[in-house]
Amino acid sequence: MVAEDIIIKPIITEKSNMDMQDGKYTFKVAKKATKVEIRNAVEKLFDVKVLKVNTMTVKGKEKRVGVHRGMTSDWKKAIVTIDTNAGDIKYLGKGGKEMKVSKKYKDSIDAFNA
After folding, report:
1. What is the pTM of this model?
2. Alpha helices, H only, the chain
3. CB of 79 within 8 A of CB of 67?
4. pLDDT tens digits for 6-58?
5. In what order do the strands lie in the sheet with 75-82?
6. Cβ contacts of residue 81 below 8 Å, gap of 6+?
7. Of 105, 89, 87, the residue nearest 42 (C-alpha)
8. pLDDT tens digits along 44-65
9. What's the confidence (pLDDT) of residue 71?
10. Homologous superfamily (CATH) for 3-105
């Protein structure tokens, strides 16, 4: 699947807005998408580092219009946790020399708030 086909739309509610401060973003995703595909799609589309992906299937509700009854379709929701600490990584290299690697990804999803 293509990344644009996996992520359908963001879900914006009061709870998801509060979770954004912790680096958790909520998306409506394709029903057949796996956690690995969702992770790769978010990293590709938004240029962030994904730490964790939680998925759940939301069951459809019964709706009624006049005397006609029907069900809304089931859909899949993914809560994606991203790395919000985009600082440099320091480690000891050969001979005890301190090396530094800068991370080349964002610490928030800017398009989500727009």
Report:
1. 0.79
2. 3-6, 14-19, 35-46, 110-113
3. no
4. 999 999 999 999 999 999 999 999 999 999 999 999 999 998 889 999 999 99
5. 7-10, 24-29, 75-82, 50-58
6. 22, 23, 24, 50, 51, 52, 53, 54
7. 105
8. 999 888 999 999 999 999 999 9
9. 97
10. RRM (RNA recognition motif) domain (3.30.70.330)
| Residue that has been written with the tokens 């994606």 in this structure | 80
Residues 16 and 109: their CA atoms lie apart, in Å, by 13
The backbone region for 76, taken as left when phi is positive above 0, alpha when psi lies in -120 to 50, beta otherwise, is: beta
Place of tokens 């580092």: 49
All residues at 6 or more sequence positions from 63 whose CB lies less than 8 Å from its CB, including other chains: 69, 70, 71, 72
User: What value does the mean pLDDT take over residues 84-94?
Assistant: 72
Would you tell me how many other CB atoms lie within 10 Å of the CB of residue 21? 9
Tokens (6 digits) for 44: 């590709």
Residue partners of 66: CB distance under 8 A and separation at least 6: none
The two three-digit tokens of residue 91, written as one number = 């480690």
